[in-house]
């Protein structure tokens, strides 16, 4: 917990946990205010948990959730009431503390000058200069007609897509003015979490500080986007700061919707329920794999689209392989429950996968969609669709369950003018250009392209987005195209991988000759690639503009020349 005093009676803080309440009390705080809506992050404690900790500690609790970018007069009035009636000093928290500091600043703007407020918040570590016009208006002076800071290319998202696109941009044009908007301080190599869940990688192997990842020449704007104003070529952050752009690249990722399954969030990381889709839970997967000696082991997969469609079954194969090696496999009943009606979307790879399904004695239950979990009762409830289309519910008891959550577009994307009806960034699948705004591009898991959502896809998309973004800056036609390439290294056993590589329409797109790696068959060479080669390609290749086997297809340029 990092408490940042702003005034003698008020402080802001990033997200706190129930255990932090006692520390806040020891520091002298009498009231705690939650400004963060529930469900914004996978590992976020719910407000009721903090409220219960406050009750036990004997301090007041108030819930004033601030939706990103929506600092309404009603919220200001509510905080003003808290400041007037609740015991102080008061500690308010949200994701980073920005929203709490911003709400306090606007609430106090009628009685304090903007200079005084901005000085106090700056000393606490919050740069709220973007709120000055609103403070000026509230204080009764003229609103500053300020122009937002401008960038040639503004990138939303510091994940694989955003960082790789920035590196590709600066490789081609080093003097381009580029900034990345990203609230997190750390970057995660998510493809490695499957191997963390199998005891092959340590969690630390998949995490690095954001400052170590960003290419030289990129400005890091540490904040979260609230909304977009594409007609003005502006992005507005949660704290009210505005940034302008000539070209906007969007790579925000997607939302893991744990709350879409009743009871799931409350039991994650305990009662045998785990998921390799979270950094903090992947080690628990390995813990459970080692401890389970008999009973039912469930593995689930929700409706598409999801990030890395092979990951749910990878967890099954690696777990089963460990149980086989430790002579426990016969005592464990493995069942893979998937909402779809095929094991893998590209038929060429299914025979090799089925060999391992049979080898491990696993049961495949199609049209089984996880809808609820009773963690303490170790029971999962599935909605099953029959041949006639009718649905029913069935229960499965388990000793261990690995869950892949339903996945959707992020809230700030789905509520924006940049999303399609399904909630994804609405782009052309070939050029990655937005269908309504020519100076906006989208890539990665949050884009509407109908490819597999994998890091390998991002590795191919980033150079295409970079080249086409520079073409827009120059007022020229687009020349680079994305062919839908994606890759899924299906870890069927420790030391063996079926290297699935394919593009739009399920077209096979192998990167290596068949004599070296035949992707339709399990191989140790593919495992070596996954374990030893892909991490450095990710960290030292993609993020430094080295486009190994990923140079953009310039077919458009060839056609134009002809």
UniProtKB/TrEMBL annotation:
Gene3D superfamilies: FAD/NAD(P)-binding domain (3.50.50.60), Protein tyrosine phosphatase superfamily (3.90.190.10). Residues 4-109 form the Beta-lactamase hydrolase-like protein phosphatase-like domain. InterPro entries: BLH_phosphatase-like, FAD/NAD-bd_sf, FAD/NAD-binding_dom, Prot-tyrosine_phosphatase-like, Sulphide_quinone_reductase. Residues 151-254 form the FAD/NAD(P)-binding domain. Pfam families: BLH_phosphatase (PF04273), Pyr_redox_2 (PF07992). NCBIfam families: TIGR01244 family sulfur transferase. This is Sulfide:quinone oxidoreductase. It comes from Rhodovulum iodosum.
